[in-house]
């Protein structure tokens, strides 16, 4: 049985299985978590601002509406057989005119995630 | 209407408008993410029936949610392919399957009896036959187009400069 042990967010098996030696495919778009939606002195942690790579205007960002986003981080202890943990969310709307997008997560993102790369997946495909 | 019925109706509408049997789809999630597969038909549950074909890219007969798929403009001729006998019941988990991973207190219940084992064997043999019959017809059609076999064998991936919002599939 083949198993892609390189992939994050997938339950890693503890037993040694035949590893897929081919190059991993990326089916997600990189996005930087630039901060929470905010004014000068107040911020709304429910709304995370995401700068998706190569998305520079509102019409491009429309493609990503509804797409699922994951923040993946490592923790010390094993849960579900893996040290990787995720916070899932969705792109909910555009923000401004330069392609920034607002994402809402099941649990709010931790502030230490600011500046880190999130994964914007291509599903659900609305086409 | 219940939520699941509405979702089915929505999926049906999507597929009827855009998907044609024989169309190549890209799987977006799961074990086979990035694989290009051939769409066979839409099942009653609203899910799409696809196949690799298995010999080309390792994807078996599989049900897939249309939201987790990107349709491409590439089409394979499926006139000779008969997927009529495959329906949602084909994918239903059997008792033996569900019980195989029982542990601890229920471990005894998970052990398959002799007759369950032979039933499993026959079931898997049947599945292999169906897979083979559908795939053989498909592979014959795939071989007619140059490079289509390699195309189906290759995986889709997003590179450094790929802009999915600009891509025309």
UniProtKB/TrEMBL annotation, chain A:
GO CC aspect terms: cytosolic large ribosomal subunit
PANTHER family associated with the record: 60S RIBOSOMAL PROTEIN L35A (PTHR10902)
Protein name (Swiss-Prot/TrEMBL): 60S ribosomal protein L35a
Gene Ontology terms, MF aspect: structural constituent of ribosome
One BP annotation, GO: ribosomal large subunit biogenesis
Keywords: Ribonucleoprotein, Ribosomal protein
Family: Belongs to the eukaryotic ribosomal protein eL33 family.
Keyword Zinc: no
HAMAP family attached to this UniProt entry: Ribosomal_eL33 (MF_00573)
Domain of life of the source: Eukaryota
InterPro entries named among the record's database cross-references: Ribosomal_eL33, Ribosomal_eL33_sf, Transl_B-barrel_sf
Pfam families the UniProt entry points to: Ribosomal_L35Ae
Automatic annotation (TrEMBL), chain B:
One term under GO cellular component: cytosolic large ribosomal subunit
SUPFAM superfamilies: Translation proteins SH3-like domain
GO molecular function, one term: RNA binding
Annotated Pfam families: Ribosomal_L6e
Family annotation (InterPro entries): 60S_ribosomal_eL6, Rib_uL2_dom2, Ribosomal_eL6_KOW, Translation_prot_SH3-like_sf
Gene Ontology BP annotations: cytoplasmic translation
CDD domains: KOW_RPL6 (cd13156)
Family, similarity comment: Belongs to the eukaryotic ribosomal protein eL6 family.
PANTHER family: 60S RIBOSOMAL PROTEIN L6, LARGE RIBOSOMAL SUBUNIT PROTEIN EL6
Name of the protein in its database record: 60S ribosomal protein L6
Organism from which the protein derives: Paramecium tetraurelia
């Amino acid at each position: 049985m083949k198993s892609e042990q390189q992939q994050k967010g997938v339950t890693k098996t503890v037993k040694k299985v035949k590893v897929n030696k081919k190059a991993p495919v990326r089916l997600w778009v990189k996005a930087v978590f630039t901060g929470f939606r905010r004014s000068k002195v107040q911020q709304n942690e429910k709304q995370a601002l995401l700068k998706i790579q190569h998305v520079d205007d509102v019409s491009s960002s429309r493609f990503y509406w509804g797409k699922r986003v994951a923040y993946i981080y490592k923790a010390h202890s094993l849960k579900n057989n893996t040290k990787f943990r995720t916070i899932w969310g969705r792109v909910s709307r555009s923000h401004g005119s330069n392609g920034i997008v607002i994402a809402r997560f099941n649990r709010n993102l931790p502030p230490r995630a600011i500046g880190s790369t999130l994964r914007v997946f291509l599903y659900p495909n609305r086409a | 209407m219940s939520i699941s019925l509405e979702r089915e109706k929505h999926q049906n509408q999507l597929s009827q408008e855009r998907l044609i049997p024989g169309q190549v789809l890209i799987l977006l999630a799961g074990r086979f993410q990035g694989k290009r597969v051939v769409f066979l038909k839409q099942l009653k549950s609203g899910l799409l029936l696809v196949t690799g074909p298995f010999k080309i890219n390792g994807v078996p007969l599989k049900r897939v949610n249309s939201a987790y798929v990107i349709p491409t403009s590439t089409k394979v001729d499926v006139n000779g392919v008969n997927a009529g006998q495959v329906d949602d019941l084909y994918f239903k988990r059997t008792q033996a399957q569900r019980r195989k991973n029982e542990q601890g207190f229920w471990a005894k219940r998970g052990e398959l009896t002799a007759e369950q084992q032979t039933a499993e064997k026959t079931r898997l043999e049947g599945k292999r036959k169906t897979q083979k019959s559908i795939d053989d017809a498909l592979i014959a059609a795939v071989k007619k187009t140059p490079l289509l076999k390699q195309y189906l064998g290759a995986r889709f991936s997003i590179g450094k400069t790929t802009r999915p919002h600009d891509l025309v599939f």
